[in-house]
Amino acid sequence: MANPLLKKLAQMIALSASERAAIGEVPLRLVTIRADQDIVREGDRPSRCAMIVGGISCTAKVTGSGRRQITAFHIAGDIPDLMSLHLDQMDSDIQTVTECEVAFIDHAAVRFLCERHWRIAAALWRSTLIDAAIFREWTVNVKRRSPERLAHLFCEVMARMEAAGLVTDRKCQLRLTQGDLSEATGMSPVHVNRTLQALRSGGLISFGNGELTIHDWEGLASLGDFVSDYLHLPQDAILTRDVALS
Amino acid sequence: MANPLLKKLAQMIALSASERAAIGEVPLRLVTIRADQDIVREGDRPSRCAMIVGGISCTAKVTGSGRRQITAFHIAGDIPDLMSLHLDQMDSDIQTVTECEVAFIDHAAVRFLCERHWRIAAALWRSTLIDAAIFREWTVNVKRRSPERLAHLFCEVMARMEAAGLVTDRKCQLRLTQGDLSEATGMSPVHVNRTLQALRSGGLISFGNGELTIHDWEGLASLGDFVSDYLHLPQDAILTRDVALS
DNA sequence: CGGCGATTTGATAATGGTCAAGTGCCGTGG
DNA sequence: CCACGGCACTTGACCATTATCAAATCGCCG
């Protein structure tokens, strides 16, 4: 199962032999992209999608006043620009945050797959709906007080990382700067720093050196008012997380 | 063309005769729902979708502290709970804001249609992607200063209303209370009031008695940093708006 | 007329932004 | 080996935006 597309779809639905075969024939182009590069830019009309295989990328917009606003983070298995399959033009930038390994897949191949296999289309559609659910949650989250906001963000990232199998001992690689966090939460960098210190001294988390550790999942989740329903994770992933984290 | 589903899909793609016929056979149930009622609740597992035919509804979440946060408004033609087709469980409430006319469509019928007609599936998928784009924009918008936020919201609503043919003379029905606006923007009701006064006295808008009028589209859009790209409106709708509004 | 919800206004307080300066940690180059 | 430069992080002081509390007004419907 070296094929990342096969891996992702197999996680989402039980694949038949013919579906596996069809997915196996989709040509992928694997590329490594270094940190802080654009994968796709606002206004682009791409003819392919990018699946993140490793590293962290983000969706961002630049406001009229020039400030960058991150609206989502993406980890392994995500296809951050799947929307380009149906929308004429990108309305956001997709950028690497850390160095990323990316698999490019032509739109034509995805369309071919979807037209012939309704269940695959439904699975991909579903994944875009989950993205939308996460955007909704961010809209809610952004209006919270600052410690709550950061706590919620950390819970979300950890839960998704865990579902992707990237967490051991409540710890995961998360090479984000405080500047990145400030662009994602809408807080000033200075205030991110102070809020992080509060979370740390409360014994909730460790964050630094490219790693996030959650010491008190219950406490962090209740502070951030985090309920994982909106991530629509498979039931078994949630169970695993509860065992692993609490 | 009394069939609202046919009308919506015809606006999105050029329909073939067989597609028209298939859509025409989808059973719809038209219902009138009075203001401030739930259409679907968080946690529900609906077996049907709701298309708004008239009135205004919203997507909302209730935070742990009990505050309601509106994440989207819906107007005629929107299917706010289309996500329920693929997600196990609703992660938000869908509620009427004004009295609404709603067409209920069984999931089974939509699936039947999508499985047989890839272009219809793609059109509906596309509409969920536009919803996601709007959520992204709200995430960005929510972090702006208050006059900017309200200006942006008004621009968005007006642009979508215009595309739906609900605007005459830069004016549309918008029976929202200041409380609704505060729940949508995350501002306090008091501050919404003061910000509205600023917009009014700046000659940008009139708002009250269930009507919104934009007197200075250019000014409002530039104040709110509004660029309509993210709405992915059909090109002709944009042209119409520019003529009508500027 | 009474009452209720929506809107308006005023005064006060706090969250969080901004400015400014300083610290610590590398990797580079002399 | 050490000095330098850059970048992320940290800290302190001040101030603007906006929330909160409280009360008054308005309009509408029964």
Give the H and E element order of chain A: HHEEEEEEEHHHEHHEEHH
Count of helical stretches of chain A: 9
How far apart lie the N and C ends of chain A?
31 Å
- The overall average pLDDT of chain A, rounded, is 94
Residues in helices of chain A, as a percent range: 40-55%
Q: Give the class of chain A from helix and strand content and strand pairing.
A: alpha+beta
| Biggest β-sheet description of chain A | 4 strands, antiparallel
The counted number of beta strands of chain A is 10
Q: What portion of residues of chain A belong to β-strands?
A: 15-25%
Question: Which shape of chain A, going by the Cα principal axes?
Answer: globular
Subunit arrangement of the protein: homodimer
Task: Order the strands across the largest sheet of chain A as they lie in space.
Answer: 2-6-4-5
Computed over alpha carbons, the radius of gyration of chain A is 18 Å
Low-confidence stretches of chain A: none
| Largest interface (CB < 8 Å) | A-B, 44 and 45 residues
Q: How does this structure look, described?
A:
Two copies of one chain form a homodimer. The first copy, chain A, is an alpha+beta fold. Chain A contains nine helices and ten strands. In chain A, strands 2-6-4-5 form a four-stranded antiparallel sheet. In chain A, strands 1-7-3 form a three-stranded antiparallel sheet. In chain A, strands 8-10-9 form a three-stranded antiparallel sheet. In chain A, strand 4 (57-62) and strand 5 form a beta hairpin. In chain A, helix 3 (107-116) crosses helix 4, helix 5 (146-163) packs across helix 7 (189-201) and helix 5 (146-163) crosses helix 8. The longest helix of chain A is centred in the middle third of the chain and has 24 residues, at 118-141. The first copy, chain A, is globular and about 55 Å long. The mean pLDDT of chain A is 94. At the A-B interface, strand 5 and helix 4 of A face strand 5 and helix 4 of B. The structure holds a DNA duplex (30 and 30 nucleotides).
